[in-house]
Specification:
Length: 276
C-alpha cells in the first residue's frame, strides 16, 4: 500500500442522524475514549467492542430495535440490510447496515463481510447501469456505535477525479491518509482502539484516514467532500439536517429505489420472504 500525508500534497458524511439522536439521549461515549492509539504491545479494544449486542434494544439501527425506522428499509439479506439514508444527499443515497449491533467493519466476521460485499457489488451495478454513475462508499467509526456504510452515486467523474477531491479536502485539514489498492487488506492498517474513516471507490481502491488526538476529524467529512462544488455541487446538503424530508417522501423514495434495485438485489428471495 501507499502511505501519504495529505499536508505534503499540493493543494492543486458525516454526522448521521443516529449520532445526533444518540447524543440527545446522552448515549455517545466520550470522544476521548474513541479517539486514541494503543500503546506499543498493548491490546486495546474499541469502547463497547467486547459487548457488540449490549445496546441492541435501544439502538436506532438494530433491525429488531423498536427505535428503528423500518419504513426506510429497502432490502434485508443475510446479516445486513439496505436502507435509505436519513437526510440523504440524493434519492439514491443508501446505507448498508448490520441487522445486529456491531460498531464497525473491524468487528465483522468473514460471513458478515461477504454480505456487505454482495450489497456493494449490486449497488455498483445499479448505479452504473441505471444511473450512469460511479459508486462511492464511506464509513466512519468515530462517534458512532453501529456500523453504517454510506453508498452514494457520483455522475460524470472518474475514480481519479473523486480521489483528487478527497486529497484536496484532507490536505486542507492536515489529515493523514493511506491509499489501499483493490484486493489489499485495510483492516490490519488500523491500530487497535483507533477510529477511522474509510472511503471505497468503483474500482475497489480505498482511502483510509486514521483518527488521532493531534487533529480533530470532522464528523461530516464524507458528506462535505461529496457535496462539494468539485463533485455533486450541492454544498448546502453537507449537513443531513438540511436534507430532511417528510415520512411520506421517504416512503415514496424507498418504494422507487426498491423497484429499481429489485433486479440487482443479491438477497431478492430473502427480501421477498421477509415482506410476506
Amino acid at each position: 500500500f501507499l502511505t501519504l500525508r495529505s499536508s505534503d500534497l499540493s493543494s492543486g458524511i458525516n454526522a448521521e442522524y443516529g449520532v445526533e439522536m444518540e447524543r440527545e439521549e446522552g448515549k455517545v461515549e466520550d470522544r476521548k475514549r474513541q479517539h486514541f492509539y494503543s500503546t506499543p504491545g498493548e491490546k486495546r479494544k474499541m469502547p463497547g467492542s467486547d459487548q457488540p449486542n449490549k445496546r441492541g434494544d435501544s439502538c436506532w439501527f438494530c433491525l429488531k430495535s423498536p427505535n428503528v425506522e423500518k419504513h426506510l428499509v429497502i432490502s434485508v439479506g443475510g446479516s445486513m440490510y439496505l436502507a435509505l439514508a436519513k437526510g440523504a444527499l440524493s434519492a439514491d443515497h443508501v446505507m448498508i447496515i448490520p441487522t445486529n449491533h456491531i460498531k464497525c467493519q473491524q468487528f465483522l466476521d468473514d460471513d458478515q463481510q461477504a454480505d456487505v460485499e454482495k450489497f456493494k457489488s449490486s449497488l455498483r451495478s445499479l448505479y452504473r447501469t441505471l444511473k450512469k454513475s460511479t459508486a462511492v462508499f464511506f464509513e466512519r467509526s468515530l462517534a458512532t456505535s453501529h456500523l453504517q456504510i454510506q453508498s452514494v452515486p457520483i455522475a460524470r467523474y472518474s475514480v481519479a477525479d473523486i480521489k483528487d477531491v478527497f486529497y484536496r479536502f484532507s490536505s486542507k485539514l492536515s489529515l493523514e491518509v493511506q491509499e489501499v489498492p483493490a484486493g489489499e487488506s485495510w483492516k490490519d492498517l488500523v491500530p487497535p482502539g483507533c477510529d477511522y474513516f474509510l472511503v471505497e471507490f468503483e474500482n475497489q481502491d480505498k482511502m483510509l484516514f486514521l483518527c488521532s488526538n493531534s487533529v480533530r476529524f470532522p464528523l461530516q467529512f464524507g458528506r462535505e467532500v461529496l457535496a462539494s462544488e468539485g463533485l455533486l455541487n450541492m454544498p448546502r446538503r453537507a449537513n443531513w439536517k438540511q436534507c430532511q424530508v417528510s415520512k411520506e417522501q421517504e416512503e415514496h423514495d424507498v418504494k422507487e429505489f426498491r423497484q429499481q434495485f429489485q433486479e440487482f438485489d443479491p438477497f431478492k428471495v430473502d427480501s421477498d420472504s421477509d415482506s410476506d
